[in-house]
Design brief:
124 residues, mainly alpha, 66% helix, 7 helices
Length: 124
């Protein structure tokens, strides 16, 4: 009778090993493909950048820059000179950093209007 128990245990262990290996192979997940890395608007940041928007607003003689940032160009330049060392970031090999003037303009626009980040990201 001991022989039958030993044979049964051996068969049980062989079954576990064989099915366990099959299950491990079956459980191996394939890497999930990303549908997108970045939205096309964000990928074309150089084309649709806030720097272009700010430059266009500065050229406009109607005072649109002052309305947009809630301060004059001189005050903006003065504030930018003071905070640039604190808010400047370095470019990486993956993407270019947002320039300090855009960072400041985004912050001022947020403080002035209270817009959500979702709506601000379309501007910049």
């Amino acid at each position: 009778m001991d022989v039958d128990v030993d044979d049964a245990l051996l068969a049980y262990h062989a079954f576990i090993i064989l099915t366990g290996g099959y299950l491990l192979l079956k459980m191996k997940r394939k890497p999930r493909r990303r549908r997108w890395w970045a939205v096309s608007v964000n990928r074309n940041r150089s084309q649709y950048s806030g720097t272009n928007l700010l430059a266009d607003l500065l050229k406009e003689p109607s005072g649109q820059f002052q309305n947009f940032c809630r301060m004059s160009n001189e005050d903006f330049s003065s504030l930018l000179a003071k905070v640039t060392p604190l808010i400047a970031k370095n470019d990486t090999k993956w993407r270019k950093a947002i320039p300090p003037n855009e960072r400041l303009a985004i912050t001022l626009r947020f403080l002035a209007t209270g817009d959500s980040f979702k709506s601000l990201h379309y501007l910049f």
